[in-house]
Amino acid sequence: MAVTNCWRRMWAVWLTASLFILSGCASTLSARVTTYQQWPVGVQGEYYRIVPAPDQSGNLQFGAFADMLRAAIGATGLREVTGGAEARFDVHFEYDNPVRQIWVQRYDDPFFYPGWPAFGGYYGGWGGWGGGVFYAPRTVHVPVEVYRNTLTVTIFDRLADGREVYRATAVHSSQSDSLDAVMPYLMQAIFDGFPGNNGQVKEVRYELPR
Q1: What is the pLDDT of residues 188-206, one digit of tens each?
Q2: Fewer Cβ neighbours under 10 Å: the N or C end of the chain?
Q3: How many domains does the structure of the chain reveal?
Q4: What is the CATH number of the domain that holds 135?
């Protein structure tokens, strides 16, 4: 019995350390960004305009996200059109956060997950430490819902017959429905290292406020 309690204390220490590590990971947000571009040269200071799709016009969430885009697009050197100025670039963006179910591994241990089926346990008769051996908990697969927060920004050059010159998609997966909270980071990720290389796929990470 003493051996079992000792092992459980050791597993408790391990679990505490794991939770500490996970909480540290939770202080950052990562996004996977895929970029395609044929960005023209010499366009510093040119004007852009945000063009909503028909189903986005008047949408309050779209308006809030458009403000986030304005804050992030400064990396391009573009300026939003004002007054009677003519915009060279049309900027479109779309977003979504579909939920899907994935399967993850967890320990099948009633000590950590009360009510779950017991695992192996402590058995005597083997001449090990304390006269017995303690079997590590087996793992089981459990379903988890994951939201795929996605943002795609596309820029068209009106002086090149409306040709697409920049397209980037940022994706962040989360177990919570948090599209509004992560959108500022997705916008920032879209223009991180702008314009980047054509066909580039990279992972960007941001510190979250504590």
Answers
A1: 999 999 999 999 999 999 9
A2: C
A3: 1
A4: 3.30.160.670
- For 43-87, what is each residue's pLDDT tens digit? 999 999 999 999 999 999 999 999 999 999 998 999 999 887 899
- The identity of residue 81, as a single letter, is V
